[in-house]
Specification:
60% helix, mainly alpha, 5 helices
């Protein structure tokens, strides 16, 4: 039933278009007196935060960059810290709130190292696309998250 109405609507719109053709567009008129203003050629300034995050770097490998290597080494260290503190907290009788109540060490490392590897791969490609600071910001934010989660276990007396 719906296809009959759809077909009828298409046929009616084709018939209406054939009965009322579109008017011709006006022809452009030459204007030798037009001169673009000098302000039209000036680039638009982006906000400072956007230019800070999206600053471009010259051709350079991310692997040889000390800041890239340090921030991602800290990311993997925070994963180890979080997983070992979590395992110790579970061994002392605390219950994990995310995932299984009593996670095993292989489960913790498989979950968290896969996230850290994904963040590192994303940052590697961002750096290869010449974004200078964005990879370090994502790695630092993930590192801070893992350190705060691990410290949460200590703060609540689970060790």
């Amino acid at each position: 039933m719906t296809s009959k109405y759809g077909l009828a609507l298409v046929l009616l719109s084709i018939a209406a278009a054939a009965a009322n053709p579109l008017p011709e567009a006006p022809k452009p008129q030459p204007n030798d007196a037009y001169q673009p203003s000098p302000s039209a050629a000036t680039p638009v300034k982006s906000p400072r935060l956007v230019s800070f995050l999206l600053a471009r770097t010259p051709e350079k490998s991310p692997i040889g960059d000390k800041t890239f290597v340090f921030t991602h080494a800290a990311l993997f260290a925070s994963v180890v810290y979080n997983d070992e503190i979590t395992k110790a907290g579970v061994a002392n009788g605390c219950i994990a709130t995310v995932g299984p109540e009593r996670p095993t060490r292989p489960y913790l490392y498989a979950r968290d190292l896969s996230i850290a590897a994904g963040v590192t791969a994303l940052d590697f490609f961002l750096r290869r696309a010449h974004f200078r600071r964005l990879p370090e910001i994502t790695a630092s934010a993930t590192t801070a998250t893992y350190f705060s989660i691990g410290t949460h276990w200590v703060a609540h007396g689970c060790l």
